[in-house]
Amino acid sequence: MNSKELTIVIVTFKSERTLFSCLESIPNNIDVIIVENSKNEHFKKNIESKFNNVKCILSGENKGYAVANNLGLRNVTTKYALVLNPDATLEQNTINNFLNTAEEIKNFWLIGPGNDQARQYDFKDKNIIEVKNIRGFAIFFNLKNFEKKFFDENFFLYFEEIDLCERVKKNKGKIFLDKNIIINHKGAKSVEITQKIELEKNRNWHWMWSTFYFHKKHKGFLIAFMIIFPKLVSSIVRTVFYILTFNKMKKEIYYSRMNGILNSILGKKSWYRPPLD
User: What's this model's pTM, rounded to 2 decimal places?
Assistant: First the structure.
């Protein structure tokens, strides 16, 4: 298979420490597009000077996972694209295995690597199986099926790949998992951040906002409300409890959960951005 049929897209935000390991694991004959969620010109110059196969696009601000990945994917001119987290590293044969599987199953929409995902399924005597969804740290796209419509940009963080897989299935598309494709993923290591509480507030706000939005989009408002209501009650109770017990950190975290839920229920955009710069 021709490696020039593939471009790798990596979205970064304060990811320098983990990113270099990722880039060093990618063969230098594979084009890479990095979308840095900032206006950090120094980052761009540093990366492009060290890696000849890398083009860095600055988004100008933290636009989140969906918008930034779409920006990268719409700049891809090859047949296939691999969306990859910056805290992931490839094995020596990862790219060849992806391309071989793409050649074998020409009607695919998405392919995911094996790793721990394979444990969820019974492959029996097969190496490749059709699945309902794949994890977002590594998604291999057959670009001709998407017509420049990739991730839902209403999501800022969380549920983007689950939503993508739902849309693929609704369009009768096929998603595969190949247990011979291995990508090492550290998980939750993409961002270099010292303000732990701000990161936790961000995670809680967006997890709750995205949970309700996802279920409302695919199941309707009523079912989404039934799913989120216990979480809303819990977040309110815990916020009050931690106010009364003077636990400022816990209070702020559960207040963020409550705020994310309420904003999503009220139909407001995913607006929360933590002060992490």
Answer: 0.91
82 bridge partner residues: 8, 140
Three-state SS for 69? helix
192-196 — which CB contacts under 8 Å span 24+ positions? 192/14, 192/15, 192/16, 192/17, 192/18, 193/14, 193/276, 195/274, 195/275, 195/276
Q: Which of 140, 152, 73, 138 is nearest to 108 (CA)?
A: 140
Report the candidate in 121, 138, 145 with the shortest Cα–Cα distance to residue 186: 138
Ranges of each domain in the chain: 3-185, 196-265
Question: What pLDDT does residue 194 have?
Answer: 47
Q: Which CATH architecture has domain 3-185?
A: Alpha-Beta Complex (3.90)
Residue 9 near residue 83 (C-beta atoms within 8 A): yes
pLDDT score, position 193: 45
Q: Looking only at Cα atoms, what is the longest distance across the chain?
A: 63
3-state helix, strand and coil shares in percent for the chain, rounded to the nearest 5: 45, 15, 35
d(CA 24, CA 253): 36
Bridge partners for 183 per DSSP: 90
Read off the tokens for 9: 């897209």
* pLDDT above 90 as % of the chain: 81
pLDDT in tens, 163-202: 999 999 999 999 999 989 999 987 655 554 446 788 889 9
Gap between the Cα atoms of 123 and 262, Å rounded: 41
C-alpha pair distances (Å), 17 with each of 21, 50, 130, 133: 8, 14, 35, 29
